[in-house]
Specification:
Blueprint (H helix, E strand, L loop, with lengths): L1 H7 L1 H13 L5 E9 L6 E2 L5 E2 L3 E9 L17 H7 L3 H7 L5 E7 L16 E8 L4 E8 L5 E5 L4 E2 L1 E2 L2 E2 L2 E2 L4 E5 L32 E2 L9 H4 E10 L2
Antiparallel strand pairs: 1-6, 1-15, 2-3, 4-5, 4-7, 7-8, 7-9, 8-13, 10-11, 12-15, 13-14
Bound molecules: calcium ion (CA) (2 copies).
One calcium ion binds next to loops.
């Protein structure tokens, strides 16, 4: 219902956003939609087992500082990124980032559209959340790659600029999202590793890696965000 509403009235909504950002200092409300665009059993492991990719609950952080969650090439800060990346649990990260210097807001999204309970987004499912921001603000997102040991999707550590020349951005931002290894748990083959989210005996189970946060570039489809998800951002209206 909500999705339909957005589609039908998109033209009106966009003109409101234009007016708001033309004023310069008006906060703008954005809807962020994260869709799992994969199909069930889309992937095949080396042992022939077919597996399905899901994405975990995550955080949407509006910030003015440069690297609110991690820095590439540095160790995880121990502020909850590990639980986000290994277990799909963003709550600890949200709590520790909230209220920090340069942090405007931290929003947890954990309940799929049309679902009544928190859970991952399976193929075809989506999360929707909203944030409010001012020109100069940036957006960081964190989402676990559900069939990994400690991989998460996020933009670069500096986040995504929510305004360009004072104008609210709008549209598909998936190309700005990469997949990162948190450096906290030794990797197993995606989809079949016994210590990965769907199969581990308990949260935080698996061999410690003691590595650094780094980008995964293995050429696999799931390592290119735009091949497995779609993230769109839509300025909704001047926020009050
Ligand atoms: Ca790892
Ligand atoms: Ca694990």
């Amino acid at each position: 219902m909500f999705t339909k509403f957005l589609g039908v009235t998109a033209a009106v909504i966009f003109s409101f956003a234009g007016m708001a950002s033309a004023n310069g200092d008006q906060p703008t409300k954005f809807t962020i939609r994260i869709e799992n665009t994969t199909k069930p059993d889309a992937f095949t492991a080396s042992n022939g087992v077919k597996w399905t990719l899901a994405f975990s609950p995550g955080t949407a952080i509006v910030h003015t500082n440069k690297a609110p969650v991690f820095m590439a090439g540095k160790k995880d800060r121990g502020q909850g990124l590990e639980a986000q990346a290994e277990d799909g649990d963003p709550s600890q990260l949200a709590k520790s980032v909230q209220g920090g210097k340069g942090i405007k807001s931290v929003t947890v999204f954990n309940t799929p559209v049309d679902a009544s309970m928190p859970g991952p987004i399976t193929p075809g499912a989506a999360y929707e959340t909203t944030v409010t921001a001012m020109p100069g603000d940036r957006l960081s997102l964190t989402i676990m790659m559900g069939q990994s040991n400690d991989w998460f999707y996020a933009p670069g550590e500096y986040g995504i600029e929510l305004f360009k020349s004072g104008q609210a951005i709008s549209g598909d931002i998936t190309s700005q999202i990469s997949i990162w290894d948190a450096g906290t748990e030794v990797n197993e083959e995606p989809g079949i590793g016994p210590n990965q989210g769907p199969r581990q005996k308990a949260p935080n189970t698996g061999k410690a890696e003691n590595g650094v946060v780094h980008k995964i570039q293995d050429g696999k489809a799931y390592s290119t965000a735009s091949k497995v998800m779609r993230i769109t951002i839509t300025p909704v209206m001047p926020a009050m």
